[in-house]
Amino acid sequence: MLSAEDNALLTRVEGSAPMGRMLRDCFWIPAVRAARLEQDGQPLRVRLFGENFVAFRATDGRVGFLDEACPHRRASLLLARNKDCALRCVFHGWKIDVSGKVVEVPNEPNHPEAFAARVKVNSYPVREVGGLIWVYLGGWDSPPKFPDLEFTRLPPEQVLITSTIIPCNWVQGVEATLDDGHVNLLHASYVAQLPPEHMKLYLGPPPRYEIEMKPYGFEACAVRELEDGRTWAAMTQFAMPWYCFVSSSGALNGSTARQVFFATPVDDTTLQQWAIFYDTSRPVDAVMAGVKDYDPDNFCPPLGDASNLWGRNNEAFEAGHCTGFVDNLLSEDTAVQLSMGPINDRSREHLCSADRSLATARRVLIQAAREYADGKLPAAAHPDVNWRDISVWTREIGPGEDWRDGRDAWEIVRFIATGLRTQAPSLDRRSRR
To answer: E strands within 19-101?
Structure first.
């Protein structure tokens, strides 16, 4: 369990909270699915770390990411007209381009160009990669190294992007994807539909968990002793600050399908849960990913609250479904996250050995926030960290064999930990806001 103080440090991200400052300064943030932004189309609100922003795609295809409020009277730029590579506020016609430059102030009769030049509008660096718009919200003079993760280098037809907004703290979303031990319990009705050779991975005694630390986070391996004498190892990779690459039972048949989950903070009590399905060798579609009949921007519609058991289908539950959440596999995870409350009180938990992955993630995140507050760069933000080859696998291991052996043959690259305690680079401490 965590102390109440550590739980607050881990979960709070708004304003000057140390965790929020570290996340904003040291990492690029996945903000919005790129396909949602159309040239000269409707601006989109993006809420991150308790602040509201507006994202839009200009006439020439560039993406702008600005504070939502117009700098004049703070009317929302969601109402603005997106045309001629700029947003024009409907209130008084102020026109602001992708870079944040105020190019017209129609209601200023005295030297409008000079007046406009004095107005500051916060514009944030963006990258359009892997079907996502990524934004840098921190205060460094130059953004950190971009995390060129495996899926970001694939063609669009090989990547399927989904997300949903969940009204609870972002760490609850991260922990849900790190908790391998819940699959055979929470998702038992789904597991029962798998082919027999896959189903065996989730039945029988619980796995033992082994952790190996890496500069970007850690590798976690769930080792299962099966009834037929075989031993299977399933790899999970946690890459700071929120990426979780999860192994799939499909890997038993040599599948090149992958999945990565991450939870980004909307505010202290709201997260955006992302689920990315991709295949390194062929196109992927919703049926292959198991998420057919879904809304890519809302894969799990609001479930409710305790008064309706978070939307549980009680008839299905009484009939034998393991949870009663029959419409969407991911709604099972969402329901238990919501049931913990807006911010889980981790000071009252009783963790067991099956919780090693999430306990390690908590420790890594808390340590990074404390180090950054002391002027040290977190290991995962060091420019030498190699993000490119982070991947996962599920495979059989022989008697006396260590799961770490032969990882290179399974496309797992050994990373060399360098600069784990490096002094933070010189930062421009002046707030963008």
So the answer is: 29-33, 44-48, 51-57, 63-67, 81-83, 86-88, 95-97
